[in-house]
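RECORD TYPE: protein structure
NAME: Ribosome maturation factor RimP
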Amino acid sequence: MNESALVSVLEPVVAAHALELDDLTVVRAGKRSVLRITLDGDGPDGRGPTIDDIAEATRAISAALDESDAVGDAPYTLEVGSRGVSSPLERPAHWRRNLSRLVRITPVDGDRFVGRIRAVDDTGADVDVDGRVRRVGFDEVRRAVVQVEMNPKDEEA
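PREDICTED:
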């Protein structure tokens, strides 16, 4: 399977469902291949796609792959999902979709810290760390992951 051919088939289908192709991985598993597709998007509340969004897109993706030559005749398993809560924040859109959530940030230099995302633009985010807003440039972040809150504070962004 040629990944660039797959992307050219998948991107218009995914875009038609107001989603983004976040990741595409093809893994050989014996005689079969596993085609793993990760989707992202704003969803109805700006926080990412719903399970129904993913299900609808999956049906359309499956149909498009059946009609195309991108997968060839080899048997494959299609796995489609959304970014999980433990997925690192890698693009400004990932940060924006997690506005007001707690995030653990590992900077390129310095110690890891946890703060609440307050604002996001194309170059970085304003993060509330212990009551003080700290500007964090995306180029200063080695890794950032949302922290799951069982009883989140009812705060506005």
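COMMENT: The longest helix spans residues 51-67.
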